[in-house]
Design a protein that fits this description.
- The complex is a heterodimer of chains A (about 525) and B (about 325).
- Chain A is mainly alpha-helical and about 525 residues long.
- Chain A contains 24 helices and 2 strands.
- In chain A, strands 1-2 form a two-stranded antiparallel sheet.
- In chain A, a hairpin with a 2-residue loop joins strand 1 and strand 2 (about 305).
- In chain A, helix 5 (about 95-110) crosses helix 7, helix 16 runs antiparallel to helix 21 (about 435-465) and helix 23 runs antiparallel to helix 24 (about 495-515).
- Chain B folds into 2 domains: about 30-110 and about 245-295, D-Maltodextrin-Binding Protein, domain 2; about 110-245 and about 300-325, 3-Layer(aba) Sandwich (D-Maltodextrin-Binding Protein, domain 2), CATH 3.40.190.
- Helices cover about 45% and strands about 20% of the residues of chain B.
- In chain B, strands 1, 2, 3, 4, 5, 6, 7, 8 and 9 form a 9-stranded mixed beta sheet that branches.
- The longest helix of chain B has 28 residues, at about 155-180.
- Classes of the chains: A mainly alpha (about 525), B alpha/beta (about 325).
Chain lengths: ~525, ~325
């Protein structure tokens, strides 16, 4: 018996060892397509003087100022709108609360360009209000998910006792609830701030000519003005800001694993009042209005119901600006499929290799903190010469999507692999199953939901990716977000409505896909 | 045998990679690809003769406005999206040269970027039409001018360069400060400015002054919904900046020979004579005959404002940066 167990441990290691060897391929690819371009770009082009210049040049000072204040305002609004909803969902169990969590989560997975298009379908002209709204729409889910998980853990008796002792609602929140959720709130705030600070898709649609974030400015400097030095200095400086925010946001917070468990402990049903109804309805309406708006506007032309927007999209009208919707949708679907396959397979191999948690955290955090535009910039300045002159190649786009999706897919799969009880594997092995059989029969079935989630997430990232794709897109590889941005970027009702139609198709597809999941 | 599972995953991943790598090479020798800006609308069937003579079809791929087209092409210089590029102008030429974008190029057409005005708007209100750059900053012309962002639009860049040519390196920034104070409207591209914001064309917008071309008035006559004999718009001649467009062979093309033939075709009399009424530009080939409506209504000043390509290349970044600090 003892001998058998020992041999089991040994065979478990063969699976693991093979995976450790196999993971070198995706890790090497990550080094080639992420580490190499970003590092070589910084080493080759970054000069301290350029960084100083990017802060002191007056046109750029304005950009820094706008980026910071819009990110702060967006984050504040997201928290203000998200907290009441989070509180209600965490404290009350009522009919439809799951649906509401599902609905407010939809925009988070949706392409930023599509969310912004939804806002544009309501506000029409580019404006700061529109930018803030779009940021709120897809970040409320971050607050609901992260803070909600923590809040649900809190014993309602704590609040009730404070109330019994005569504390006002505000005092109870300030001195009892807030300290309890403080860590998770800080984490959520930092993540939302990071997203808003490096916003690009939303700005491309709603920014107009004079409202630009650093992320958008990097693109303009590199592509429009051909000034790579300034672009690189800006993106380096932005990375420093994001790293600082990320560190502040995550230091001292525990891993999310226990929080995920917490959501299962539902609180007892309590009296549902008008105030709580408002706390649910208003935030939900704010989040969903742009998505519904895009759908409605796609069916209304000149105040009358019409299907023309969809006709224009597919009958060649949009060819006048070089957009072929059928080709675009096909391209996006192919890229998303490739991304889902490669990313999920790579993440599965890396997770199954069961590396140290520290390694996983570091390996995934760095790409997460590097903005997509920085990656796109790194790729075009690095892969431009000799045998690695790849920047005109179409396949580089899905590969970049894989690089961007891998950290998130790994964050989905790694905890799932760790959660498989070792006893189950040992039991199977002691019944005579070979290690690979154990892996196929125990690990894989238990991992299936996580594998599906990782694949879906990767596909969604590929479909929505805008920042890095903008650098590499060409007329024969236009993806959906790029097409929408080009349609909205040209004057003319036909093109604008075609953009709404394409966005509406995305909204419906994403909502259905998420419901199925 | 035991290692088969992960190997299958890896092989699948690799196959997907190679499959998508090999799908990117689809050059059709029966076709020559012309990359052009959005507004490239040649006469229908104009390439038929070329196809008859050479057996090669011409496929036009549009790539945004001139600025976007050139920037994008520079990013993939040496691995071009097509064989020939139409429409790099003198404001962007030096950038293309620096990036070694073209193996050869020829000037193909010319025209002027000038402020256009809506005749009716000024006569109805009994306000004199502005005559000079200086007029545009006067209170009488507040809220009336729409221009394009020079970082994204070639007429926008032309107009900015015109102010630099007129006022000199010292004064032009002050002029833009005054123009901004006089509420100049800035949009990203020519189409938005001319067809949406300008009051004198199809969009019936709010602005009676717009940066456009010396050849825009004849275009109004040709494209008018109801037949008209005189254009509803005019040109402020003192603001005109000379623009020359080039056509060239993209470096990295696999069809160098047929690409050069297409360039020759553009310079030939037949194509040159088709340009005035389809692209609204003046032919570079002096043998080409100009149509009546063009000789009558298009403006081509004898002494337009201009700046040499070298000076543009040397200063463009500084100028644009200064402009952005003032105007955005």
């Amino acid at each position: 018996m003892a001998r058998r167990l020992e041999s089991n441990r040994f065979v478990m290691n063969t699976v693991q060892r093979t995976m450790r060897r196999a993971q070198l391929l995706p890790l090497a690819a990550l080094a080639l397509f992420f580490g190499f371009p970003v590092i070589s770009m910084l080493v080759r082009f970054l000069r301290p003087q350029d960084i100083v210049d990017t802060i002191s040049t007056s046109s750029l000072t304005q950009v820094w100022w706008f980026t910071t204040w819009q990110a702060s305002a967006s984050t504040a609004l997201t928290v203000i709108i998200g907290l009441p909803l989070t509180w209600t969902i965490a404290r009350y169990s009522f009919k439809g609360s799951k649906t509401i969590i599902g609905l407010v989560t939809v925009p988070f997975f949706m392409p930023a360009v599509v969310v912004a298009t939804g806002v544009a379908s309501i506000v029409d002209s580019p404006s700061v209000a529109g930018i803030l709204w779009a940021h709120v729409v897809f970040n409320v889910a971050v607050v609901v998910r992260i803070v909600g998980a923590r809040w649900a853990l809190m014993d309602p008796a704590l609040e009730d006792t404070a109330a019994d002792l005569g504390a006002t609602t505000w005092r109870t929140f300030r001195y009892i609830s807030l300290p309890y959720i403080a860590d998770s709130l800080r984490q959520a705030t930092a993540i939302v701030f990071m997203f808003c600070f490096s916003s690009f898709g939303v700005i491309a649609i709603l920014g107009g000519i004079s409202r630009r974030t650093i992320e958008a400015e990097v693109f303009i400097q590199a592509v429009r003005l051909g000034d790579t030095k300034t672009a690189i200095a800006l993106s380096a400086l932005q990375a420093i800001v994001i790293f600082a925010v990320y560190t502040i946001g995550t230091c001292g917070t525990q891993n999310n694993d226990e929080l995920t468990l917490a959501t299962q402990q539902r609180t007892t049903p309590r009296r549902f009042r008008i105030a709580t109804a408002i706390a649910v309805i208003i935030p939900t309406a704010i989040v969903l209005a742009p998505l519904v708006g895009a759908i409605i506007r796609s069916f209304i032309i000149d105040n009358a119901p019409s299907l023309n927007a969809y006709r224009w999209l597919f009958n060649g009208t949009t060819e006048s600006i070089g957009i072929n919707a059928t080709q675009t949708i096909t391209t996006s679907t192919i890229f998303a499929t490739i991304t889902a396959l490669i990313t999920t397979a790579s993440a599965l191999v890396i997770a199954a290799a069961r590396n140290k948690r520290q390694f996983i955290n570091t390996a995934t955090a760095v790409p997460l903190m590097t903005s997509a535009v920085t990656l796109g910039l790194g790729i075009i300045v690095t892969f431009n010469d000799g045998i690695i002159n790849w920047r005109g190649e179409r396949w580089l786009i899905p590969i970049m999507h894989c690089v961007i999706a891998l950290p998130l897919a790994l964050r989905t799969l790694d905890p799932a692999v760790r959660a498989i009880p070792e006893e189950m594997r040992q039991a199977a092995a002691s019944l005579g199953a070979s290690p690979w059989r154990v892996w196929c029969r125990i690990d894989i079935p238990l991992l299936t939901p996580a594998i599906k989630r990782a694949a879906g997430l990767s596909a969604a990232i590929s479909l929505g990716e805008f920042g890095a794709t903008s650098f590499l897109t060409r007329s024969d590889s236009t993806t959906i977000p790029i097409a929408i941005q080009q349609l909205l970027g040209h004057p003319g009702d036909t093109l604008t409505h075609s953009a709404f139609a394409l966005a509406a198709l995305c909204v419906v597809t994403f909502t259905l896909a998420l419901r199925a999941a | 045998m035991k290692k088969s599972k992960p190997l299958i995953a890896l092989i699948t991943a690799l196959t997907a990679l190679t499959a998508c790598a090999s799908s990117s090479n689809t050059t059709n020798p029966q076709e020559v690809v012309l990359v052009a800006y959005d507004a490239f609308t040649p006469q229908e069937g104009i390439f038929d003769d070329f196809t008859t003579d050479t057996g090669v079809a011409v496929k036009v791929v549009t790539a945004g406005d001139t600025g976007t087209m050139v920037s994008k092409a520079i990013l993939t210089a040496g691995k071009p999206e097509g064989d020939v590029m139409w429409g790099i102008d003198n404001t962007f030429l030096s950038r293309a040269q620096k990036a070694d974008l073209l193996t050869s190029y020829e000037p193909v057409d010319e025209g002027d970027i000038c402020v256009n005005y809506d005749k009716n708007w000024f006569t109805q209100r009994n306000i004199p039409v502005p005559q000079t750059f200086e007029d545009l900053t006067k209170p009488a012309y507040k809220n009336l001018l729409v221009v394009q962002d020079p970082t994204t639009s070639s007429p926008g860049l032309g107009f900015m360069l015109a102010t630099i040519a007129h006022f000199g390196d010292e004064e032009w920034q002050n002029y833009w400060k005054q123009l901004t104070a006089n509420n100049v409207k800035i949009v990203s591209d020519w189409t938005t400015a001319y067809t949406v914001e300008f009051s004198g064309s199809s969009g019936k917008g709010k602005y009676p002054l717009v940066v456009s071309y010396g050849s825009s008035p004849p275009a109004e006559v040709v494209y008018s919904a109801t037949p008209i004999t005189k254009p509803p718009t005019g040109v402020m001649e003192s603001t005109c900046f000379r623009q020359t467009e080039y056509v060239g062979v993209l470096r990295g093309t696999k069809n160098e020979k047929i690409a050069s033939q297409l360039v020759e075709y553009f310079l030939d009399k037949k194509f040159q004579e088709s340009m005035p009424l389809t692209l609204f530009v003046f032919p570079i080939n002096k043998d080409a005959q100009l149509p009546d409506v063009f000789t009558k209504f298009a403006v081509q000043p004898n002494n337009p404002l201009t700046i040499g390509p070298d000076s543009i290349e040397k200063n463009r970044d500084t100028w644009l940066d200064a402009w952005r600090a003032i105007a955005l």
